[in-house]
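Project outcomes to date are best conveyed with an example. Our students and postdoctoral researchers have been running inverse folding experiments weekly, and each run begins with a structure described purely in C-alpha cells. The record below, which covers 329 residues, was selected by the lab manager from last quarter's runs and is presented without edits.
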C-alpha cells in the first residue's frame, strides 16, 4: 500500500494551462495529417500509362483476371488473339472468301487478319504520347493468356487522330473491303459527333471490344470492360460509342452487356464485302449520350478519367480484401 501511494504521488495532476497546451498540440497534429488523395490526383511518372500496375478484376478458378494497359511489346500477342477470334466469326457471316470469290487458306487469312489488327492497335497506341493520353489498348489476361482486348480513343469531327487516319488509309485499298465495315463505322461515328445531344464535341470511340466466348468467363470479362467504360464516360462526360464484334454470338453476349454496361443499341453494321452475301450483322453498336457540357463543372483530363475508370473496374473481393496480393501464376 505505501508503494502504491508513492507512485500516485509521483504523478502530479496537470494544470489547466498544461491541459490547454496539450489540446492545442493534439488539434495541430490532427490538422497536419493529410487527407486521402484521390487516385487520379496523385502524381504519375513520366512513363505513365505504360508503368500502370495491373488491376485485378476477378478470380476464375485458381487464377486472377487482370486488366492491363497494353504496350507495343504486346502487339503480336494481341493481334494473334484478335485474328484467331475473328476468323470463325467471319466464316459464320460469310466473308472469309476474298472479293474475287476465291477461298483463302486459313493460315493466309489469319495472317492477313493479324496484320490488320496489329496496325489498328498500333494506331490506337499512337494516340498516347508523353503528357497527352488520348487513347489506349487494354487487355484482359489470366495466367499469362489474353482473354479480352478493348481499344479506345478520342475522335473529333476532323478525324485527325492516328486511328482515324489509319482507318481512312486502310479502307482506300480495294483489297481490304471485305475485312472491316470501314466507312459504315466511320459514318456512325460522324452521326454521333453531330448528334443534337453532342453538338460536334469529341466523343469516346471504342472500335474494338472482343472477349473469349467461354460462358464461364463472360461475366468477369464483360463485367470488367463494362465497369471501366462506365467509369470512363461518366467521369469524362462525353458521348461514347462501342463496336462489339460478336457475329452470330451477339444474342448470347447481349444479356451480359445489358446487365453490366446498360447502354442502348444504337446501330448494327456489316463488313463492306461488296460481293459477299452476309448471314447477319457481325457488328453491334452500343452508345452512351451525354447532354451538353456544363461550363460550371471542371473538366478532368482524359488521363485522370482513365485512372478513375481503372479503379472502378477493380474487384476488391478477388483476394478477400481490398489489399492486392501476388497473383497465382
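After processing, the design step wrote out the following sequence:
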Amino acid at each position: 500500500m505505501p508503494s502504491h501511494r508513492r507512485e500516485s504521488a509521483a504523478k502530479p495532476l496537470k494544470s489547466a494551462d498544461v491541459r490547454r497546451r496539450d489540446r492545442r498540440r493534439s488539434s495541430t497534429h490532427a490538422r497536419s495529417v493529410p487527407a486521402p488523395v484521390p487516385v487520379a490526383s496523385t502524381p504519375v511518372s513520366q512513363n505513365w500509362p505504360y508503368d500502370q500496375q495491373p488491376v485485378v478484376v476477378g478470380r476464375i478458378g485458381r487464377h486472377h483476371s487482370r486488366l492491363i494497359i497494353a504496350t507495343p511489346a504486346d502487339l503480336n500477342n494481341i493481334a494473334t488473339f484478335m485474328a484467331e477470334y475473328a476468323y470463325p466469326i467471319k466464316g459464320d457471316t460469310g466473308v472469309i472468301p476474298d472479293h474475287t470469290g476465291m477461298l483463302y487458306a486459313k493460315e493466309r487469312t489469319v495472317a492477313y487478319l493479324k496484320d490488320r489488327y496489329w496496325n489498328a492497335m498500333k494506331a490506337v497506341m499512337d494516340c498516347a504520347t508523353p503528357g497527352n493520353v488520348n487513347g489506349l489498348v487494354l487487355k484482359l489476361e489470366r495466367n499469362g493468356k489474353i482473354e479480352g482486348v478493348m481499344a479506345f480513343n478520342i475522335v473529333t469531327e476532323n478525324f485527325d487522330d492516328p486511328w482515324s487516319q489509319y482507318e481512312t488509309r486502310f479502307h482506300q485499298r480495294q483489297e481490304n473491303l471485305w475485312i472491316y465495315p470501314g466507312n459504315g463505322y466511320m459514318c456512325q461515328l460522324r452521326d454521333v459527333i453531330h448528334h443534337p445531344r453532342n453538338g460536334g464535341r469529341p466523343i469516346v470511340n471504342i472500335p474494338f471490344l472482343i472477349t473469349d466466348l467461354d460462358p464461364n468467363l463472360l461475366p468477369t470479362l464483360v463485367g470488367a470492360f463494362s465497369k471501366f467504360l462506365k467509369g470512363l464516360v461518366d467521369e469524362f462526360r462525353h458521348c461514347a460509342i462501342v463496336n462489339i464484334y460478336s457475329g452470330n454470338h451477339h444474342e448470347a453476349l447481349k444479356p451480359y452487356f445489358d446487365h453490366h454496361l446498360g447502354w442502348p443499341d444504337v446501330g448494327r453494321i456489316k463488313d463492306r464485302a461488296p460481293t459477299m452475301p452476309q448471314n447477319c450483322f457481325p457488328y453491334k453498336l452500343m452508345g452512351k449520350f451525354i447532354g451538353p457540357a456544363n461550363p460550371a463543372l471542371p473538366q478532368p483530363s482524359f488521363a485522370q478519367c482513365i485512372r478513375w475508370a481503372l479503379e472502378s473496374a477493380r474487384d476488391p473481393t478477388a483476394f478477400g480484401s481490398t489489399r492486392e496480393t501476388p497473383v497465382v501464376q
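The first strand starts at residue 55 and ends at 60. Strands lie at 55-60, 63-69, 128-129, 132-133, 135-142, 145-155, 203-211, 240-245, 265-269, 283-288. The training component of this project remains on track.
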